[in-house]
Amino acid sequence: MEFGVNFFPVIDPAEKTATAYYDETLRLIELAESLGFTQAQTVEHYFSGYGGYCPDPITLLTAAAARTTRIRLATGACVPAFTHPVKLAGKLAMLDHLSHGRLDVGFGRAFLPTEFEAFGVSMDESRARFAEGVEAIRRLWTEENLVWEGSFHRFGPVTMLPRPYQDPHPPIYIASASSAESCAAAGTAGHHLQVVPSVTSAEQLAAMLVHYRRAWDAAGHDPAARRIQIKFTCYVDADRETAYQQGEFYERNYVDHMAKAVAPLAERGSADYPGYEKFLEKARNYDFRAALGANKVLAGNPSDVLAQIETVREQFGTDLSFSLQFNPGAMEYGRAAAAMELFAAEVMPAFQDDAPQDGTGAEIRCRAALAVPA
Fold first, then answer.
1. Mean of per-residue pLDDT scores for the chain
2. Which secondary-structure segment (H or E) carries 264?
């Protein structure tokens, strides 16, 4: 089973400068490679302490590519709605070459009202813009003399240079927060999946994965090629209570920043984001111990975290890879590095010889629990 590292900067500038955050992130990516983590990823967000230090994940990952040789580099995720597909396809293809084929591309719809307003994009168009952008980029990577006549962009004939390093293109991941429909569409298209259990219920996530696997199989894609990545913040320390204290502090920081970022849409709603108003309610009522008990965050000593990972795999399938954030908020470099080292030494070895499975056993249990038809 594979473990990667995730970088989502939930930081106010008064706590840590952008320069310090980038320097520490690049050091942690180098450390992750040396410890055997297989992927490093980062987000695309703007303006606020909720991710705003990373408006361009491609730039940060390009710097990481120059300092590493083996670890894969992933957008988790970049937003097609905010960039012309020709521009985004070209930037990603360049990074694929600069990393010598180590790029994984995660695409997301975005969900923060201030970002859509700044780009002059309606949130009610987000689903359609997302689908069009991903398909346009895929075709730009693989076709010559492409003529694109979409609802939001028209161009061509054009032949993109450079073509991607990987043939036919970098692996595509679709980030889905709560939509079974989006997961099914990703499975049908043969795209991989990124999910975040902290923003949905276990039952809803299980249903999402059932729909994804079923759509993948129905489309005739190779089950062995499928990748499902699940993302967690992870607080691990030799002393359980120390890990819990860190987790409670930084998870509250994360939730408070998210609540501020989502409040404008939570108050008015959007057809493309049904149930969005519940994000704000959940944020206001957040309880770390309840989240820990529901395995929405990983925390404790190495044995505790190992047991949580085993439980997550029992719930959602053995075909998962894990993307872990060890440095949330303004946590100092030394603490994050020590947690990564402890995890690599005492948790990862338990899964080294655990080959990925197709998740079928978990899917059967999920269908039974949720009454999802076979």
1. 92
2. helix 240-268
Residues 353, 205: Cα–Cα separation, whole Å: 26
Q: For residues 144 and 130, what is the distance between their CA atoms, to the nearest angstrom?
A: 22
Rounded-to-integer distance, Cα 163 and Cα 165, Å:
7
**DSSP bridge pairs for 149:** 154
Neighbours of 17 (CB within 10 A): 12
Q: Do 164 and 91 contact (CB within 8 A), yes or no?
A: no
90: helix, strand or coil:
helix
pLDDT for residue 252: 92
Q: Residue 29: pLDDT above 80? A: yes
Q: Give bridge partners of residue 322 from the DSSP assignment.
A: 3, 230
Q: For residues 38 and 4, is the Cβ–Cβ distance under 8 A?
A: yes
User: In this structure, what token pair is assigned to residue 60?
Assistant: 């940060």
Closest to 205 in 3D by CA, of 172, 176, 233, 234: 176
Contact assessment for residue 238 and residue 259, using Cβ atoms and an 8 Å cutoff = no
Closest Cα partner for 204 from 307, 132, 282? 282
List the structure tokens of 370: 């949720």
Amino acid identity of residue 372, one-letter, is: V
pTM > 0.85: yes or no: yes
The residue among 193 and 371 whose pLDDT is bigger is: 193
Domains along the chain with CATH numbers: 3-370 (3.20.20.30)
Residues whose CB is less than 8 angstroms from the CB of residue 93 and which lie 6 or more positions away in sequence, other chains included? 141, 160, 162, 163, 164, 165
Residue in this structure with the two tokens 């230090």, named with its chain if needed: 53
CB 187 within 8 A of CB 214: yes
